[in-house]
Amino acid sequence: MTSDLQKKRFLILCTLRIGDILLTTPLMRSLRNACPDSRIDVLVLKGMADVLEGNPDIDEIIESPHRTPLWSRLQEWRALWRRYTHALSPVSSDRARLYAFVAAPLRLGFINAHTSSFSRRLLTHALLFDDETLHTVPHNLRLLEPLGISPDCTVVSPTAGGMLPGPLHEKKYAVVHPYPKFTYKSWPLENWVQLVQEIQKKSMLVVLTGSHAPDERAVVREIARRTTALDLSGTLSLAATADLIKKAQFFVGPDTGITHLAAATGVPTLALFGPTNPVKWGPWPATQDCAQQPWHRQGSQHQGNVWIIQGSGPCVPCHQEGCDRHAHSRSQCLETLPVSSVLTIIQRLTEPASGNATAS
């Protein structure tokens, strides 16, 4: 069937956050491999396009405002009306299905048990969304099955050209990204301070990254003040952050989009996990085979260039927003995750005879 798709026009709809968009890039890579002469555009929410910077598989990135007056929305739909031959949506939402209906006559996407019959009919090929047992990367690639296209599981990180900030040239450094978007995914500030101090004892520069959000910058600045680490928060684009991470000795971060990005660069990536199900959302290792699931539900584990360090407890992973079930809640499993569990892996990575060390 792929021979019939060579000069088709594809629109991929991913109206979620940067981590979700990043894990959709294997879909773009697979389409480009199978249909090199086709057009492949991606629609994301406004402000999310940076995670696709430098991606060679994309012809155009379309940014859609999250909220806009009805007249503007109608103009947007008019511009998209049947502009494509195929619309693929890895996002199971009414919004994504509606955009797919507007954009193309052939529409592939996911539905949930609660999806209305009207919304289901917006798709020509509807697949049931699996939120428990299949990792997001191979799950998204299921959209290719009706098209007869072979999957490529490569997660493509953004790039700004590979240039590093001046102070880092010819230096060995580690990247630490301490701040997640949601509190329930966070590790205590004191633990980050201790971790950075221990890394610095190895005569290694520590670079702190983060967004320009005031709360995030305040936390990163405090860690930098207490450790003399280099604070680059709020100064780098996502693509420049990816370039920075790619040349690091290793990366440490919580369950957040930048950690997925780090895994995609191929650098050793240490990911701190608590309530989130790693089977579905663990960082995808750079050389992972499509046919194999990289993660199981419980326990610290290692696959390829990624180490998942999971907090302990009989409820882990609970799939909830922290112990109090809201985005600003703390998570006891992360509050009690010791610094030593991270340092043990760093020690193995930085020793010449570390070999193929695995997390215990």
In brief, what are we looking at here?
The protein has 13 helices and 13 strands.
Write down the domain tally. Answer: 2
Characterize the biggest β-sheet: 7 strands, mixed
Query: Number of DSSP helices?
Result: 13
Spatial separation of the terminal alpha carbons = 46 Å
Widest β-sheet, arrangement of strands: 9-8-7-10-11-13-12
- CATH class of the largest domain reads Alpha Beta
Predict the CATH topology of the largest domain: Rossmann fold
Low-confidence stretches: 354-360
* CATH hierarchy: architecture of the largest domain: 3-Layer(aba) Sandwich
Order of helices and strands: EHHEEHEHEHEHEHEHEHEHEHEEHH
Fraction in beta strands: 15-25%
Structure description:
- With 360 residues, this protein is α/β, with parallel strands linked by helices.
- The protein folds into two domains: 2-147, Glycogen Phosphorylase B (Rossmann fold); 166-350, Rossmann fold, CATH 3.40.50.2000.
- It is built from 13 helices and 13 strands.
- It has helices at residues 18-22, 25-34, 70-80, 94-103, 117-120, 136-141, 189-200, 214-227, 238-246, 257-265, 278-281, 332-335, 339-350, and strands spanning 9-13, 39-45, 60-64, 86-89, 106-111, 125-128, 173-176, 205-208, 230-231, 251-254, 269-273, 301-303, 306-310.
- The strands form two sheets. It has a seven-stranded mixed beta sheet with strand order 9-8-7-10-11-13-12, with helices on both faces. A six-stranded parallel beta sheet has the order 3-2-1-4-5-6, sandwiched between helices.
- Helix 7 (189-200) packs across helix 8 and helix 9 (238-246) packs across helix 10 (257-265).
- The longest helix is centred in the middle third of the chain and has 14 residues, at 214-227.
- The termini are far apart.
- 46% of the residues are buried.
- Mean pLDDT is 93; it is low at 354-360.
